[in-house]
Amino acid sequence: MTIIRNVKIFSQGNICRGEIIIDGNGTIADIIHAEENPFYEKEKDTVYDGKGFLLLPGIIDTHVHFRDPGLTRKGDLETESRAAAAGGVTTVLDMPNTLPPTVNEKALSDKMESAREKSCIHCGFFIGATEENASHTDDFTEACGIKLFLGSSTGNMVLTERESIEKLFRQRKHVLVVHCEDDGIISDNMKEAIERYGEDIPFRLHPYIRSREACIKSTRYALEMAVKYGTRLHIAHVSTAEEVTMIAKAKRLNPDITAETCVNYLWFDDSPSGPEGENIYDMKKAFVKCNPSIKTEKDRKALLKAVINGTIDSVATDHAPHLEEEKMQAYGKAPSGMPSIQHSLQMMLTISENEPSLTIGKIVELMCGKPSEIFSLGDRGRIARGLKADFVLVNPEKYVRVVRKIPEIRENDLGYSVIAYKCGWSPIENEILRGEIVATFVEGKPVYQNEAYNL
Ligand SMILES: [Zn+2]
């Protein structure tokens, strides 16, 4: 038996003091409340002292790009799973745009094998929809879902044939996760920008090139199809206020439709925030370039409202690391995507400081409960008897600064979160976040522990 003692346990919407008993299979055998009879450990039991910190279910991030295989200069299953664990994430669902892309049985089983060897957390893998596999996606019994890039340019996984797209919306076996951005609109905008600026396109044009209209058009189409065919559609990374309104309407017609946004869209917007009226694109350039683009303050606020009222079901990261030198290039060349998995929980805790209705319970629902429900991961996502002993132990009272390395002279009362990504950078470097990740447990075993905390 393993015992995690002296913790505040978040279970069934309440926080209570107690301890968790974990059996030999990494499953929660019992939850003992402090006022009940204490569980007396035997000599061979492993006991962790939780020091009174808050124990939450491990975060389930249903949208990540760990870059393995083929793009491992940017990240791999070992490095990115460690960074995830440092952020309290215990399960990830990884996207198929690797090299080779995950579009057949062989690529899928190779990834699963590789994850067993290299990852310190649980990994599931999406199958990327192609013209070739669209008619037999039911065969991919081990996939966690199907990823469809609907008119967006990500290698060879763009589906434009209406017939194949319909097959995917008609299938019943898998959740269909769709990246919605209309390619035609984007390439017209890009052409216009090149004509005007040549090589030197200002980064602040990103949300006008990868525009809201591109998102809206594509999301409208996906929602119409899902209503028509009753699909279990999950709209990935919603980034505009208009999509929120459309999703709310479509959900009334097909309750199986779900939607996700990512922490970056709740954190950043393109309003002037610098001393001379610069916005994040002027200041951070390609380091905040992602697809869909980060949009306006109005969009950010609408998304925040939507995660609180449940129109948007879940919050993921779209963790997508690239090398710094790749990001230093001009607009047209710098790849889109940024690393974010290590700080998603802390970013949400920080946002909640100014948003009282974003409670701890709500955050757990968005990052654990709903992801588990949508992707049928019934053995996790809550702290309850019989489920996996996947936890994050967090101190919500402490603040940490995101750094590349701990400074020699420490700031008073401030903790540090050292960037663990293989790419070595973060778009929120130097920022102060609420909450310290004290430890992360996968099946009852600590896979991460804070520098100041010896379990
Ligand atoms: Zn993505």
Entry summary:
The chain is an alpha/beta fold. It has 2 domains: 52 residues, no CATH class; 317 residues, TIM Barrel.
Second CATH tier, the architecture of the largest domain: Alpha-Beta Barrel
Low-confidence segments, given as residue ranges, are 152-156
Give the N-to-C terminal Cα separation: 16 Å
Radius of gyration: 22 Å
The distinct bound ligands, ions and cofactors come out as: zinc ion
CATH homologous superfamily of the largest domain? Metal-dependent hydrolases
Please report the first level of CATH classification, the CATH class of the largest domain.
Alpha Beta
Specify the helix fraction band: 25-40%
- What is the total number of structural domains? 2
How much β-strand is present in the residues?
Answer: 15-25%
Number of helices: 13
Tally of strands: 18
CATH topology name of the largest domain, in short, is TIM Barrel
Shape: globular
What does this structure look like?
The chain is α/β, with parallel strands linked by helices and 455 residues long. It folds into two domains: 52 residues, no CATH class; 317 residues, Alpha-Beta Barrel (TIM Barrel). It is built from 13 helices and 18 strands. The strands form two sheets. Strands 1, 2, 3, 4, 5, 15, 16, 17 and 18 form a nine-stranded mixed sheet that branches. Strands 6, 7, 8, 9, 10, 11, 12, 13 and 14 form a nine-stranded parallel sheet that branches. Helix 7 links the parallel strand 12 and strand 13. The two termini are 16 Å apart. About 1% of the residues have low confidence. Zinc ion binds next to loops.
